[in-house]
UniProtKB/TrEMBL annotation:
Residues 1-27 form the signal peptide. The lineage of its organism: Eukaryota, Metazoa, Ecdysozoa, Arthropoda, Chelicerata. One of its GO terms (cellular component) is membrane. InterPro entries: Ceramidase_alk, NEUT/ALK_ceramidase_N. It holds the Pfam family Ceramidase_alk. GO terms for biological process: ceramide catabolic process; long-chain fatty acid biosynthetic process; sphingosine biosynthetic process. Keywords: Metal-binding, Signal, Zinc. It comes from Caerostris darwini. Binds 1 zinc ion per subunit. Its cofactor is Zn(2+). This is Neutral ceramidase. The gene is asah2. Residues 31-133 form the Neutral/alkaline non-lysosomal ceramidase N-terminal domain.
Amino acid sequence: MLMGLSSQKTLFSVLATIFFCVAVAECGNVYKIGVGIADITGPAAEINMMGYAQLGQRTAGIHLRQFSRAFVVDDGKSRILFISIDAGMTSQVIYLEVVKALKEKYGSLYSEKNVCISSTHTHSGPGGFLQHFKECRDGAWKHTALATFFGMKAISTTPASTEVPLPTSIIQQRRELTMQLMWIRRCSF
């Protein structure tokens, strides 16, 4: 029997997490991990969504907020920064602007060699912000794209555990997170 796409993604996430934890445990190094998050939700209404060909179709409110999540891994010798944005895609212009802002704030700690920006590929977010943005286009402002950088404000690294969690603890953590998110959504309206 074939698994659904959601089940495949969940299985891949769990396996990738377990693989990462085992790899870290085998290395014997002490890793420092940092995380940050920023709200990058664009305008609430009357904008084109990313990737839709029907230009007359406009948004009419916010169903879920969009975020930029930043993850730092530091082994004492080198550091990497992975940023995931809830957007249809990202571009080199956005990447270069974020790296420039990071260099201005953190000096040589972050550069093109250790920063990666990825997107979740949603078609429900704002469009019109990819290349050479200087002004509002289809409702997406430059600061919306650069909010990926603002997620860095809260990042500080702490020693990470190299213990591989049992699958039941992963499931429990996911349940707790889901309950917290459901509570946040109920309270945010």
